[in-house]
Amino acid sequence: MEMISICILLILSLVIIFSGGKSGNSITPFLVKGNTSGIGQGMIFAILCFAGFEGSSTIAGQSSNPKRSIPFAILSTIIGAAAFYLIVSYAQVIGFGVSNISKLASSSAPLDYLGVIYMGNSMATIIDFATLMSCFAAFLGSVNACAYMLFALSGKQYLPKSLSKFDLKLSSPKNAVNTTSIICILLYILIGIPFGPEEIYASLAEIGAISLLIVYLLVCLGTIFYFKNVSKEHFSVPRHLIVPIVGFVILLFPLWTNLYPVPKFPSNLYPYIVALWIIIGWVISLFNHPKNDLSSSLIDIKN
Amino acid sequence: MNYSKIVHLSNGNSVWTRTEGEGPIKMLLLHGGPGMTHEYLEPFSKFIKNKPIQIIYYEQLGSYYSDQPDDASLWNIPRFCEEVEEVRKAWGLENFYLYGQSWGGMLAMEYATRYGSHLRGLIDSNMVDDMKDYEIYINKLRDSMDSEDVAFMKDKEAKNEIDDPHYEELVMKLYQSCICRLNPWPDAVNRSFDHTNEQVYVTLQGPTEFTITGSLKTWSIRDRLQHIKAPTLLLGGEYDSMNPDVIRSMTNRFPNAQSHICPQGSHFSMWDDNKDYFKAIDDFLKKVEKTKP
């Protein structure tokens, strides 16, 4: 389903690029101009766009050759998504015109707009349909990723045991999927209905992006720690020291620009919410030492 | 073949155009507003199917799909006429039909007085030739509303509180009787209204259809219509916000014009009296095409 949406967006993007957009193809969209903190703030959205690229790792236990297939899945997702975002973003910028960038920024449906301009009303309708499909696919993907996350945490005994139940008939962690869906519905009732769907999306996306940044920062540090102390025989200076340090420094930039200058309410509360969430997780992990990984044993049963 | 073309104007801005259909009859469409969009003219796409007609949708400068410079000095008739001429040149149009609706009709007539030699025909839809006439008639229509409502509206206008929700409700009530009589309004009409460039609209027209405070307030082309030689069709609607009697009488002021008033139509007759409206255009095109250019 998502592939259809991707193809539709690529067709529109290529039509824009080959027609030259508003004022011709240009290198200008790639040039850095203005305040650098804008790049940091923009990076949050870039990170959000890539969020979930590592999702395939949560189902490593269910793949026949995880050491081969999971790195391939992760790498191809990153490269494919980067190429796709680059093409579509460039097409959007030249489609609106470099001099009309504020119009792109304020547009509520930029691809629909470009669809009308470059390919007519029918394409705009197809684009809207593709966006809807994409939203649905993203929702399914997110629910699935969250459910497997709960499943994995439950398997490690950080969460109630019932969440690690795997329904062999449905080939799915049924209880974790149901729990995730119920949480989504509750959040929609509590925040979505009174404040609007845009607000719940914007708020959760911002909180999620800050959390992700911290997770990625910790992964960088964890990589160094793990290969230096646990998997010593595989340790490589470029891969397990230099690359994580570079990644750490790069990721600090968007985190800093989103903390300072202090954003307006309610965004100023989000870092505290994330900090509180991390503390809760830390406290749980302090008092709840995992004994057996239940998810592994269940997957063994499946195999 | 349907395709879009961005036309770069000599003032550095660009405007969006798109052609649909194929055939020897070329027609450039000028939307109204001022500052609205081509979207409410979408019934033309259906009209030209299986006909030898090529239409060109065109979004005037300042409108949603074209550049929208924040410069009120650009919103005047002479500059818009030059813009139309640049669009004509970009498409290489000669012996073409120029269609204009409402403000687009005003612009089409103005263009015809300047560049009439390029025209094969002119279609002025739902536009009279004198703003004073228009103002009197639309206010007459407004005054036919419930007297309490009229008093309320006038009071809000005097206090400059036209963003009052009840006032907006009453404006919509009036619009539904003389702008578009379909209920609910078609999506394309709603989109055109939603996408209207307020700066263009207010600068030329004013805050509403019946509070004319913009630069068009004193506009009249009545004494210049005699110079428009191209065969002309004057379209109106019996329920239009433009007085149908004035549209009928305009026929006498053109050297070669005919009028048609859609019996069920209002200002957007292409929607609320669709068949009659497009039959009138079709008949006109056939009639003109029979004569040698």
Automatic annotation (TrEMBL), chain A:
Membrane topology label: Multi-pass membrane protein
Family matches, as Gene3D superfamilies: Amino acid/polyamine transporter I
Recorded GO CC terms: plasma membrane
Annotated TM spans: 39-60, 72-94, 129-154, 175-195, 207-227, 239-257, 269-287
Gene Ontology molecular function: transmembrane transporter activity
Top-level taxonomic group: Bacteria
This protein's UniProt keywords: Cell membrane, Membrane, Transmembrane, Transmembrane helix
Main location: membrane
Pfam families xrefs: AA_permease_2 (PF13520)
Keyword flag Transmembrane: yes
InterPro entries recorded: AA/rel_permease1 (IPR002293), APC_superfamily (IPR050367)
Localization, UniProt: Cell membrane
Protein name in the entry: Amino acid permease-associated region
UniProtKB/TrEMBL annotation, chain B:
EC number(s) reported in the record: 3.4.11.5
Protein family per UniProt: Belongs to the peptidase S33 family.
Family annotation (InterPro entries): AB_hydrolase_1, AB_hydrolase_fold, AB_hydrolase_sf, Peptidase_S33, Pro_imino_pep
Domain AB hydrolase-1 positions: 27-273
Protein location: Cell envelope
The organism's taxonomic lineage, starting at the top: Bacteria, Bacillati, Bacillota, Bacilli, Lactobacillales
Residue ranges of the TM segments: none
Pfam families xrefs: Abhydrolase_1 (PF00561)
Gene Ontology biological-process annotations: proteolysis
Function in brief: Releases the N-terminal proline from various substrates.
Organism of provenance: Liquorilactobacillus uvarum DSM 19971
Keyword entries, A-Z: Aminopeptidase, Hydrolase, Protease
Single GO term (MF): aminopeptidase activity
NCBIfam families in the cross-refs: pro_imino_pep_2 (TIGR01250)
Protein name: Proline iminopeptidase
Active site feature: S102 (nucleophile), D240, H267 (proton donor)
Chemical reaction(s) catalysed: Release of N-terminal proline from a peptide
GO CC field: cell envelope; membrane
